[in-house]
Amino acid sequence: MKIVFVWGIYLLAKDFLTRRIMFKQKFWPFLFAFLISFAISVLLNLTYQFPDSAINWFYVAQTFFLIYAFNPSEDYQTSKKWMARFNDVFIGIVCFLGFVSLLLFAFHIRYWVLDGTGINWMRQGFTENRLFGLYTSPNMGSIIGVLSVVASLMNNILKRSSWKSFQPFYVFNAIIQYLYFVLASSRGTTLTLLTAGLVITCYTIYRLFVRHQANLKSLGKVILGAGLGLFLFVAVEHQAESILAYIPATTQTAARLVTGEISWSDLRHGESKAGGNKSTVIAPVSIQHDEGDAEVSAGRFTIWQAGVKAAAQNFLFGLSDIDLYRNIKDQEATAQVDMTKLTTLDRSEIKRARGNMHNTYIAVFTKAGFVGLIIIAAFALFYLIYHVGYLMTAKVDFSDANNQLYALILVTIIALLAEDMVENHILLANRDTIGLIFWTYAGFLNVHRSQLQAQKSQAINKDLKSKFINIISPY
Predict the structure, then answer these.
(1) Whole-angstrom distance between the N-terminal and C-terminal Cα of the chain?
(2) Triad 81, 83, 84: Cα angle to 5°
(3) Cis peptide leading into 168, omega within 30 of 0?
(4) 450 Cβ contact list (under 8 Å, min separation 6)
(5) Which residues share a beta bridge with 131?
(6) What would the mean pLDDT of 391-413 be, rounded to a whole number?
(7) Which domain covers residue 101, as residue numbers?
(8) Global pTM?
(9) Could you tell me if residue 272 is inside a domain?
(10) At the N or C end, where does the chain have fewer CB atoms within 10 A?
(11) Last residue of some domain: 262, 295, 328?
(12) Average pLDDT in the 133-156 region?
């Protein structure tokens, strides 16, 4: 990671001194202003959060001006091929991780590993009634799996001009990721999928009105289709969960049959072998959130509340990093904020969160302050208006694969923005895979929009030329 971090700084410096592609992106002044604002936050809190806050700043700079940045003067076909290769590598890695994670579930394997800091222990495998697998969070693994399916749809369009033209490997990956989603029991992923479905439904209804096709029959079809889709989503997930719950016990029983620990007769009668103490009854495992474990799902609000109360003391520029207890011992207190203004619960939640606010918007406020939040909100607003505005015209033809790709990426971005109301992936979450995918797709969407505009201009010019020829041809 250190090598990648230093290499990223080198690439930033190289681009700044040579091509300056970073300053050719859509709405780059907002991103640059955020970096200045966050730099002020880092300087104001330098005594307490250095070097971590400075590292945070460089990661944000790399996200904005390396990950988000696409060369607008580069041929679109080059960017298109790069995007397809990027997606294929991403799909391959995620498919492998998902497949091995399912094996860990099948054999009921769980263990702990140290994170990148060498300080914190992270869970993996099937533990606490949820599948972590090779990921350190079931929510992370589940969302990444969904994004790999989105990447498959993108590549279907990029390579074969049809989102339905699946390769066998893409189908295999989609099955793997769906099974992981069921076993991960991820509420964040469910929120993401429901948001995507809601956006598509609302947009479909909007299109009916804009194209003057709205009537009780057409609206009823859309609403009925959305309701049926939601019903199938819930019902199939529940049935899949019920079936998958028997797999760990089945594999364990099969292993005991092979080793001779039990016999087929014991299995038929559901009895233990003489002298044994293990039942041969195949019982399902529980797949659900365990509200009594160390998960923060049920305690997100108290984490948000504690973070906001602490950051409110440095309202304009925040704390640069909300992990207030990183560099102090248990019996000590930080002077970065006035601890007397925080309750015992607030302090406990900040310590438990270890810098993760589980909400990108609150994370931005706590680390970059109100100024940083306003700047990044302005960027998001202009970005969404620019891209959503294209799809709000009645002339968008979705039989065109390029428009399908545009809508797919934009819906994915909006869904991730909703998901980050309960997670922190998009911004100020260093080395976060979901954040890297988000900003890569956001940057590519700018390039794709430019391509659509170029195609539209070519079509208009061709039409004008044709009309001109028709006018002068009699003469």
Answers:
(1) 71
(2) 65
(3) no
(4) 72, 76
(5) 126
(6) 89
(7) 70-245+284-295
(8) 0.90
(9) no
(10) C
(11) 295
(12) 94
Residues 211, 77 share a domain: yes
Segment among 140-149, 201-210, 319-328 with least mean pLDDT:
319-328
Q: CA–CA separation, 23 vs 145, rounded Å?
A: 33
- Amino acid at the residue 270: G
Task: List the structure tokens of 248.
Answer: 């760990």
Matching residue, tokens 């679109």: 76
Stated as kind and residue range, the H or E segment containing 111 is strand 110-114
| Amino acid at position 363, single letter | A
Tokens of 456: 């539209």
Do residue 193 and residue 235 come from a single domain?
yes
Shared domain check, 347 and 220: no
Average pLDDT of the chain is: 86
Place of tokens 């399908």: 404
Which DSSP helix (H) or strand (E) runs through 123?
A: strand 121-127
- pLDDT at position 299 over 60: yes
**pLDDT higher than 80, residue 275:** no
Q: Indicate the length of the chain as a whole number.
A: 475
DSSP 8-state secondary structure symbol assigned to residue 272:
P
In this structure, the number of other CB atoms found within 10 A of the CB of residue 237 comes to 15
**If you write DSSP's letter for every residue of 280-344 in order, what string do you get?**
----PPP-S--TTSS--GGGHHHHHHHHHHHHGGGTTT--S-S-TTTTS-TT---SSS-GGGS-H
